[in-house]
Amino acid sequence: MKTPSGHEVYGMAAEYPSAAALYEAAKVVRDAGFKRWDVHSPFPIHGMDEAMGLKKSWLSGWVLFGGVSGLLTAIIVEFGPSSFLFPLNVHGKPTNFMTVPSFFPIMFELTVLFGAFAAFFAMLIMNRLPRWNHPIFNWERFSRVTNDGYFLVIEARDPRFTEIEARELLERNGGQHITIVHED
Predict the structure, then answer these.
(1) Which of 168, 145, 162 shows the shortest CA–CA distance to 16?
(2) Which phi and psi angles does 98 have, rounded to 5°?
(3) How far apart, in whole angstroms, are the C-alpha atoms of residue 47 and residue 116?
(4) Rounded distance between C-alpha atoms, residue 168 and residue 184, angstroms
(5) Going residue by residue through the chain (184 aa), what tens digit of pLDDT does each one get?
(6) Strands (E), the chain
């Protein structure tokens, strides 16, 4: 979406006087059917996930996938050479799966390492990072978010977004300083 002056629109933003007002506004925006929107506050607001209609994150699934991949990698790397490719009889020690206790440290370390890498990269991808400059930082009032500002932003890429409907919804919810946020 572009403005008449040719600027690309990121969304419609409003400031709220308190955390309670932001919480109530989030419930109304959720019930209005918007899907692409976010709230910003100087501290976490209890129950905001439910108010926004957010579901459980898929991050734990990616961490599980990474951990299982690390464990399987350790099993293949350790048991492959010692039991199947190059079995050596050293002082009568077994060359089969009876050697598991000696391999536990490496199995544990690779499980944790792969899980940590999966968590790190999945978090970056899921949050669409790195993004060097977010358009919301172009709004001068947004600098208050780290002190005492409570903001709600409806993104223009939402299928339900129209400038008039978004503005009316934010005004009805008690939003103040409602403005269009530009991409550039």
Answers:
(1) 145
(2) -75, -10
(3) 28
(4) 24
(5) 676 666 789 999 999 999 999 999 999 999 999 999 999 999 999 999 999 999 999 999 999 999 999 999 999 998 888 878 887 777 777 777 777 888 899 999 999 999 999 999 999 999 988 888 889 998 999 999 999 999 999 999 999 999 999 999 999 999 999 999 988 7
(6) 9-16, 37-40, 150-155, 176-182
Asked whether the beta carbons of 173 and 25 are under 8 A apart, the reply is yes
How far is 152 from 22, CA to CA, in rounded Å? 7
Concatenating the DSSP letter of every residue in 128-156 gives T---S--GGGGSGGGGGGGTT-EEEEEET
The span from the CA of 86 to the CA of 144, in Å, is: 65
User: Is the Cβ–Cβ distance between 40 and 175 less than 8 Å?
Assistant: no
- Alpha-carbon span 91 to 87, nearest angstrom: 13
Q: Is the whole model's pTM more than 0.85, yes or no?
A: no
